[in-house]
Amino acid sequence: MNDTITILGTRINLETYDSAVEKSEKYINSKNSAGYVTLTCVDSVVNAYKNPLFKKILNESFLSLPDGLPLVWIARSRGIKNIHTNTRGTSLMCKFIENTCQKQYKHYFYGGKEGIAVELKRIIENKFKGVQIVGTYCPPFKKITEDEDKKICEVINSSGADIVWVGLGAPKQELWMYEHRDKLNVSLMIGVGAAFDFLSGNKKEAPAWMKRIGLEWLYRLMSEPRRLWKRYLVGNSLFIYWLIKEKFSYK
Fold it and tell me: N or C: which end of the chain has fewer CB within 10 A?
């Protein structure tokens, strides 16, 4: 697929899982400097609308994939009919590894709470025979010093990793990838949000029926109301308001 749309100034690349994996592979094999892939959700679009730097980060990504059915619905309303689903971090990660585990790409897991990335490494290695995971790192909750950041960059670079999977949650992971694009010798960084928690079993995913009708956000809100109420209730309301305002301003 080659369809691209812009929602409130943020670029969204409408890809299938297979085409996203294929394009990511081509980028890795091109030996370009480190690029990054974002899974862009409604909350990310809202943050980008308010923050020009964050919009720049999303729009300069190699791929900005739609993480949420509302973005897919908008694409369909604009006449793009061949996009059937959104891009979820768990599914993209598994699809990429499944399609490429025999190609000797080296993976590094960066993010998650203490022990989550290690457990994820064990699960992925058991599920996908032949996959090469060359390291994991769980950053502390406190702000990392320049010396600490330099050391972890040296560790990642010395691991020979081709891909760094980043599970810090938005917008932290997008900022981290953007800031490290010139510090790391990897080919690609992919921000997958809560995928580390879901794939390791640390958190439960929404039931399949809620995913199909675009209510995954409601399940997550009910699971973590204190942390996510502002993102979903305030953020979603602003998103709808700005979309309506944009539509009428064009008219």
Answer: C
Work out the end-to-end distance of the chain between its first and last CA atoms, rounded to an integer number of angstroms. Answer: 30
Joined tokens for residue 34: 């480190």
Dihedral Cα 165, 169, 174, 177, nearest 10 deg: -40
- Asked if residue 80 lies in contact with residue 31, where contact means CB atoms within 8 angstroms, the answer is no
CA 21/CA 198 separation, integer angstroms: 20
**Looking at residue 250, what is its pLDDT?**
58
DSSP string, 186-250: -SEEEE-TTHHHHHHTSSPPPPHHHHHTT-HHHHHHHHSHHHHHIIIIIHHHHHHHHHHHHHHHH
The Cα–Cα gap between 189 and 181 comes to 8
Residue-wise burial string across 139-157, b where 16 or more C-beta atoms lie within 10 A, e elsewhere? beeeeeeeeebeebeeebe
Domain residue extents for the chain:
3-250
Q: What is the mean pLDDT of each run of 10 residues along the chain (251 residues)?
A: 89 94 94 90 96 98 95 92 86 96 94 93 95 94 88 96 95 96 96 94 90 88 89 91 82 53
- Answer yes or no: are the C-beta atoms of 140 and 23 closer than 8 Å: no
Could you list the beta-strand ranges (E) of the chain: 3-7, 10-14, 35-40, 63-66, 106-111, 132-137, 163-167, 188-191
6: left (phi over 0), alpha (psi -120 to 50) or beta: beta
Cα 193 to Cα 167: distance, rounded to the nearest angstrom: 5
